[in-house]
Input
Amino acid sequence: MKLKNNLIECIISICTLFMIIGIGNAVILQKETKEITLAQLQANSHRQMMGYIIKTSTGKVIAVDGGTSEDEENLIKHINSLGGKVDVWFITHPHNDHTGAFIKIVEETNIPIDKIYYTMNDLDWYKKYASERAYEAEDFQRALQNERIKENTEEVTLNQKINIDFVNCEVLGVKNPEIIEDAFNNSSMVLKMTLPEKTILFLGDTGAKSGDKLLNTQKDKLKADILQIAHHGQNGAKETLYQAIKPEICLWPTPEWIWNNDNGEGENTGPWTTFETRKWIEDLGVKQNIIEKDGDQTIEVK
Output
């Protein structure tokens, strides 16, 4: 009888221990998922730009684009506040309002960058179909060949999956050499991040034609909780793409002059179509708009 009682006590003790471990792990997991943050960076010049930094639950740093050369200082400040290195850097396309700060960091600093993912057509393609800004593609390619990072670069493929802690990424869009109108923008990377409780979709500068291609090829994967509005909020993807995504929160890489369509003579005096996009998003019932014109902003995304 004594042996039987000891056995029962032993079983109860083991079960209690497993329950404590399970509860502890659940608390840790819950704490980790609450620590994933997303920062939208402000423009530090009168130019448009796009830059985002995500911190994972274990402290890894993911950058998306980064802005112009004038935005380098602010970008470095954010990187340093998160430990002074970038674990994964996604570059949506080689326009310098997306790559300028990245290029300066690569060429003029020692900030470690473990992995760089990008999509890009051949230089001759840019020279043929976007000759006036082909030098920006050349600048970006030169940076990718820099000795300290060239072994860490990788051109993404369609539907490629990249897992970073609790952030699971899938590439839904890559370069589109067959689309020669609005050539740079229609070859933007489209990246979906799935977190434990939220999804984020980055459109880069996706244009009308590449947006239509997304609808035709990836429609079942487009729904997202958080959406980066294409091409700084104007003259980019069509309303039908936003209707398929149905976001709750929108990230606008949009400075005040584009937000207000202001060419210097007051609201709605410029050629930008931001008010049209704003109406589309309003009609979708979006709960929160985070706008670049309001400065650096960080949200918890879980």
